[in-house]
């Protein structure tokens, strides 16, 4: 591998880790477009340079499954060579929340399978840091044919009231003048979960749902004159897809 190509791959990987905090070798192979075996020397070089380290995947039953994370030096270099982020409040993540690993890796997989690269995506973390006024933050934002799309990945079943609340919040945000994405694509690993969300979404009238202190309650039932009725224009901004 030439020095120029090595530095290009280094910049891409470090940028991806700024976006998502951690990843794994399978995903990096997709990110860089090469087989995992072809990256062994690349990983060793970055590890010896003190830019990345390998930690055990907390949700894997195999101790050999590792996550790739930035070291302090790697984090500082990532910011230096990716100066377009221009976000002073970014900090190095010291702890990996076990409950979020599966979801974080899943959204990375969806993005990479969609052909997204490290320069054409905003992760949830970056969105929150860069756009403090975004009220409904998706898992990621990409550009598709010039249209900004918010991506959501759902891995577990939620109560209908919570689902309706999220849909209503997204519609309200998409119709606002300050929106930074114009459509929402929902991704699912389970066909039954996709069908459940689609069934909820396809109802002609929705209950009007509110949220107080992370508790969701129905203010108006779907039979009420004050229920939520999404227009066809609103519905056309959503897609439901399998990963």
Walk me through the structure.
By secondary structure, the chain is α+β, with helices and mostly antiparallel strands. Helices cover 40% and strands 21% of the residues. It has helices spanning 3-20, 25-32, 40-48, 72-81, 98-113, 124-130, 160-174, 191-201, 232-235; strands spanning 22-23, 52-56, 66-70, 121-123, 140-144, 147-154, 183-188, 208-212, 215-220, 238-242. α1 (3-20) crosses α4 (72-81). The chain has a five-stranded mixed sheet.
Major sheet details: 5 strands, mixed
Helix content: 40-55%
Helix-strand pattern: HEHHEEHHEHEEHEHEEHE
Rg (C-alpha, Å): 20 Å
Class based on secondary structure composition and strand pairing: alpha+beta
In what range is the share of β-strand residues? 15-25%
Q: What's the β-strand tally?
A: 10
On the 0 to 100 scale, the average pLDDT is 94
Shape: elongated
Contiguous low-pLDDT stretches (5 residues minimum) are none
Identify the strand order in the major beta sheet. 4-5-6-7-10
Number of H- or I-type helical stretches = 9
So what's the oligomer here?
single chain
Quote the distance from N terminus to C terminus.
33 Å
Question: What would a concise description of this structure say?
Answer:
This protein has nine helices and ten strands. The protein is α+β, with helices and mostly antiparallel strands and 243 residues long. The two termini are 33 Å apart.
């Amino acid at each position: 591998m030439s020095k120029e190509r090595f530095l290009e791959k280094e910049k891409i990987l470090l940028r991806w880790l700024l976006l998502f905090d951690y990843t794994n070798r399978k995903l990096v192979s997709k990110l860089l477009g090469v087989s995992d075996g072809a990256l062994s020397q690349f990983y060793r070089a970055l590890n010896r340079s003190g830019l990345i380290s390998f930690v055990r995947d907390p949700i894997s039953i195999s101790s050999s499954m590792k996550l790739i994370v930035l070291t302090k030096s790697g984090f500082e270099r990532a910011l230096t060579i990716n100066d377009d982020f221009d976000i002073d409040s970014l900090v190095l993540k010291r702890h990996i929340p076990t409950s979020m690993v599966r979801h974080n890796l899943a959204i990375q997989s969806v993005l990479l399978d969609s052909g997204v690269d490290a320069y054409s995506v905003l992760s949830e973390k970056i969105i929150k840091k860069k756009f403090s006024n975004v009220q409904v933050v998706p898992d990621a934002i990409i550009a598709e044919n010039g249209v900004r799309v918010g991506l959501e990945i759902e891995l577990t079943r939620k109560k209908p009231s919570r689902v309706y609340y999220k849909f209503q919040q997204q519609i309200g945000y998409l119709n606002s003048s300050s929106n930074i994405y114009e459509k929402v694509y929902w991704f699912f690993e389970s066909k039954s979960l996709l069908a459940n969300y689609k069934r909820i979404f396809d109802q002609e009238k929705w209950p009007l749902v509110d949220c107080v202190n992370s508790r969701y309650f129905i203010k108006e039932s779907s039979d009420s004159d004050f229920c939520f009725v999404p227009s066809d224009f609103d519905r056309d901004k959503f897609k439901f897809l399998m990963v």
